[in-house]
Amino acid sequence: MHAPCVRVPTDAGERTRKRLADADLVDETLDIAVADGSLYIPVSDREAVPDDLAVVEHDVPERETQTTPADLLGFEPSYERLGDVVILDEDDPARAARIADAVVESDVRARSVVDRASKVKGETRVRDWDVLAFEGDEPASRSPTATVHREYGCEFALDIADVYFSPRLATERHRVVQQVGEGEHAFDMFAGVGPYAIPMAKAGAEVVATDINETAIDYLRENAARNGVADRITAYAGDVRDLVSSTAGGERADGGREAVETYDGWADRLVMNLPHTADEFLDTAVALAGEECVLHYYDIQHEDDRYAPGEAAIRAAAEPEYEVSVETRHTVRSYAPHEYNVCLDVRLRRA
């Protein structure tokens, strides 16, 4: 079948295959093909392939020996992959254990299999996890819930026991990042480990990122260095409201230093991915906004009225100081029965 492949000379084949495998980009359902002195390595995401590698369409055979969990179970289980951690969401412990065993016995690359044991909770938005399977040899100090996730050419180290991260939002994050221009001032108000901040910096923006979770900010700084953008990201652990002059406190949550730098009127772009309570921070967003600013506002609302509550809240906070125009009304995903996670892309122009 025809598929996107990285084409390399045969003498560079194994080195390139390993490089792509380390980035979780090799399409494991297809085999590598050889033709005219070149190897054709099938890839799962052509947009995430490094620019120095050539991606072409080529005919490659399907891999006949691939064993999936469904082959072993007789049904298609639901799971997510986050790096080398496989995540289940099963209420029945026996069923969860059976799926975990099948994942381990299959050809799915998994260092551990975990099951959600609680809802997202607390100010830092973390969960409890049941570890169902764990190959803990390397490195010995790394927990079953720690991993490195790769997404659109970026790498994110994280531990899902300590930070919030959803692989389901990769496409949405990429949608926003594609709008970022060179030299922009981008502010991620609830940054986590950096899945918006780091690709925005890679797109050429100067980024300020905050999060109340100090561990998440530690990971964000590590990930900024990992992705080569540490010089374009300033990260603060603490409440974003401390970074505008009207509400700034006397101490910084990331180290107890006196005085906090404030960013009034600094931002050309604001990301507000805290959908349950983002409306409580709109006054801060308006204070951060520059003369013209694009706001990516995430919300969760009933299917009958997905966008109007968020738009009304933004107008109440920004008008008349800013002219408000909604550029995109976008449904990200279903969140719960009759409820949707949505995003409003809103342009603010100082009146």
From TrEMBL:
What keywords appear on the UniProt entry?
Cytoplasm, Methyltransferase, S-adenosyl-L-methionine, Transferase, tRNA processing
Which Gene Ontology molecular-function terms are recorded? tRNA methyltransferase activity
Q: Which biological process annotations from GO are given for this protein? A: tRNA N1-guanine methylation
Q: Please state every residue range assigned to the domain named SAM-dependent methyltransferase TRM5/TYW2-type.
A: 79-350
Superkingdom, according to UniProt? Archaea
Tell me which PROSITE patterns the record gives. SAM_MT_TRM5_TYW2
Q: Please state the span of the N-terminal signal peptide per the UniProt entry.
A: none
**Keyword Transmembrane helix on this protein?**
no
InterPro entries found in the cross-reference section: MeTrfase_TRM5/TYW2, SAM-dependent_MTases_sf, TRM5-TYW2-like_MTfase, TRM5/TYW2-like_N, Trm5a/b_N
Q: What would be one Gene Ontology cellular-component term for the protein?
A: cytoplasm
Record's protein name? tRNA (Guanine-N1)-methyltransferase
